[in-house]
Amino acid sequence: MSLPNPILAERVATDHLPPTRSKILLVDDDKDDRFLTQKSLESKNCEVVSATSVTEALKQIATQRFDVLITDLHMPGAGDGFALVTAMRHSQPEALTLVVSDFPDVQKAMAAILLQADEILVKPFDVEQLPMLINKRTLTPKPSPTPAKENVASILDRDVAITIQRWLSRVEQVAELNSLSLTMKQRTEYLPEMMRNITARLRADRTIEAVENPSPAAVAHGQLRCRQGYTAPLMVQESRMLQVCIFETIERNLATVDFTAVMPDIMIIADEVDAQLKQSIGSFLTMERGGAALASSA
């Protein structure tokens, strides 16, 4: 990352830019690249929060405000830089988004990324010029195009990862829940499918207090929570937090949400969350009783 990039140099060729302190989310799985970029940014009075994966970065986006996102395009595990740019665009639209890529076909990469990102940086680039670019771009106000209207189901589908990350952050603040030693996967195993059930209900059944639809994910969730040592009240608490996080996702998208159906959607969401909780608690109690019966007969 030490070679100069003439295109980047041309873009940052400005004199005496006034200093600004930017809060930056830096996402890169390469330890050396991340270290060099972070040190360069911090030397220019930037506050840097680093992440090594898409999942970790989504958690930061869900819990903190940033002026700038700098992300490598290609990341290990689920997701990539595109997912992070999309999440930042919708949750913090004023943030500057920069994508770093060593994509072999640079023109195709630029055409795709620039649909969402503000800038593409092609490796290798001069990391010392990065603070100047950030300062220049953040001093230029972004245009404010009129956003297209979206229904609630589309918003929840699009922001499912960030909704779950916000839910995890809430769980971590509850001592009794956090004391259960579980990985992120163990806590969230069935949540994506349960969220899909909610958006499917919004699209297919507009009846409030409809006939309960069987949810295999909710049933499996209850059985899993029983094996993990939960209590029924803790399951209720988690469900309430999920409902709050869903409503927060809608609130964060008020600029684009289609208000013509918001109130019915909110009531349907509340009814569906309760219906899934009922099925989860039912399977939890059945499994709990079965375990108690086996213990008494032993």
Q: Please state how the strands of the largest beta sheet are arranged side by side.
A: 2-1-3-4-5
Helices and strands: which structural class?
Answer: alpha/beta
Shape: globular
Unreliable spans are 1-18
Kindly state the mean pLDDT as a whole number? 81
Write the layout of secondary structure elements.
Blueprint: H1 6-11, E1 23-27, H2 31-43, E2 47-51, H3 54-63, E3 68-72, H4 81-91, E4 96-101, H5 106-113, E5 119-122, H6 130-139, H7 152-158, H8 160-172, H9 175-178, H10 184-188, H11 191-204, H12 216-227, H13 232-252, H14 262-297
Parallel strand pairs: 1-2, 1-3, 3-4, 4-5
Helix pairs in contact: 3-4, 3-8, 7-11, 8-13, 11-14, 12-14, 13-14
Task: Provide tags for this entry.
298 residues, five-stranded parallel β-sheet, disordered N terminus
Characterization of the model:
The chain is α/β, with parallel strands linked by helices. The chain contains 14 helices and five strands. Strands 2-1-3-4-5 form a five-stranded parallel beta sheet, sandwiched between helices. The longest helix has about 35 residues, at about 260-295. The radius of gyration is 23 Å and the shape is globular. Mean pLDDT is about 80; it is low at about 1-20.
